[in-house]
Amino acid sequence: MSSTEYMNYENTKFSKSRGVGVFGTDAIESGIPADAWRFYIFYNRPEKQDFQFTWKDFMEKMNSELIGNLGNLVNRTLLFVNKYFDGIIPDAPVDEELWAQVKDLEAKITENLEWANLKDAFHQCFEIADICNKKFQAAEPWKTRETDPASCAKLIHNLCYVIKDLMIMMNPYMPQYTQTIASYFGKSISETKIGTPAIEGMTWADLGKTEGLDKVGPTEVYFKPLDQKTMLAFREKFSGAQQKKAEKEAKKAEKKKEEPKPALTPEQQIEFFNKNINLTIAKITAIKPNPEGEKLYIETLDDGSGTPRTIQSGLRMYLKEEELLGKHVIIAENLAPRTMRGVESRGMLLAGDYKDADGKDCVEVLDASWAAPGTKVVLEGADVNAVKKEQITGDDFFSVAIEAKDGFVQIAGKKLLADGKELKTEKALNSEIG
Fold first, then answer.
1. Residue 416: enclosing H or E segment and its boundaries?
2. Strand partners, 302
3. Distance between the two ends of the chain, CA-based, in angstroms?
């Protein structure tokens, strides 16, 4: 038997009677393809813990994973065949290195499905798509089609067969989409038992085979991105009476609260920081993704205490593991521990944000490579040995505005120092630090 925990809706529960949530007829009327809904449900299947559906998360995962990863691989590869090979899949040798990775994941997917680990198997399909996307980008076939035609043909040939495998494996999850893509190859995905021949069909037994595909017919983009405006409109539409009532009650409660405390003056921020906030240099000695949090890294730090420290950072969308491993970073050491996606985080890593030349959101982690783990970060003129408060809240930390101005990290005009040297940013030159 395969059972799950609960999927909840926004900040409440699904309720047909109260009109809270998206149900069958709602999904049809939304105009969003059925397989996009199937994708989201399986991608976030609550197999080990409850999961909360939010429209924001639906938009982000659909646009990044379904369209930006899988859809991107399929569209760019098949369009390349049509544009540069007249729709004929080039004949080329097998890419042994690529297929070693793919077949290893295919074996894991098969095993996970045998044990009804549907979510893990689905995620591994997207791992394959990601590997292939990176290979496409690194190989630059738009250049090699002229400078190295054999290399270009080998890449496209092998990617077509990997896509074929992905469509077979993802057919139980997204039957309409996978059958459509299979049809571009002039094939269909058979629902017969493994190993049973099917006319023009593809079965699980065809995984890993690099023969049988000849051409690619005319293609169309299947999934369209969901924009912010549409997402917000759907969230409002399906909020229901219960949600509106909750919002109304929340507003009433808000009015009863005390007036918010006024923001600290620059002088008060400096005084508060010197008495309460403990920033320390720490070296990242190990890093891995949190399997339950797609944006989170789990980092092990040497903070100079002799005991490894674990923190979590939402940096997976911005930085690779190798870009962080070994860095001497600045952490809010005395921030109260917080459990995120099943792992306790003892502190927070400091970073600033900026946009690159293409307007893409980027993050720069504060770096103090010259300072040893355990070194205290202080404001210029402050006592480096001052005793700080043992533990602070997130509200305490954010009551002080740490920011980069022209590359210098400071608070109220006073620069932050590590081992007597000023902290600087290289790219996030003028940004809030958090």
1. strand 414-418
2. 283
3. 45
pLDDT of residue 192: 43
**CB contact at 8 A, 11 and 151:** no
Neighbour tally for 41: CB within 10 Å? 17
Q: Which helix (H) or strand (E) holds 402?
A: strand 402-405
pLDDT tens per residue, range 340-391:
888 899 999 999 999 998 889 999 999 999 999 999 999 998 888 888 888 9
Q: Which residues are bridge partners to 353 per DSSP?
A: 363
Q: Is 81 left (phi over 0), alpha (psi -120 to 50) or beta?
A: alpha
Residues with pLDDT less than 50, the chain: 192-199, 241-242
Tokens of 32: 């969003």
| Cα(355)–Cα(359) distance, integer angstroms | 5
Give all domains of the chain, ordered by start, each with its CATH number: 7-206 (1.10.730.10), 266-432 (2.40.50.140)
Nearest Cα neighbor of 376 from 345, 413, 408, 421 is 421
Q: Are strands 51-53 and 7-9 parallel, antiparallel or unpaired?
A: parallel
What residues pair up with 349 in beta bridges, in sequence order?
Answer: 331
Dmax over Cα atoms in the chain, in whole Å? 80
pTM beyond 0.85: the answer is no
Per-residue confidence (pLDDT) for residue 18, from 0 to 100: 64
CA distance 407 to 333: 23
Under 8 Å CB-to-CB from 152, ≥6 apart: which residues? 139, 141, 144, 145
Q: Tell me how crowded residue 174 is: count the other CB atoms within 10 A of its CB.
A: 26
- CA-nearest of 177, 182, 215, 160 to 67 is 177
Residue corresponding to tokens 């099917």: 198
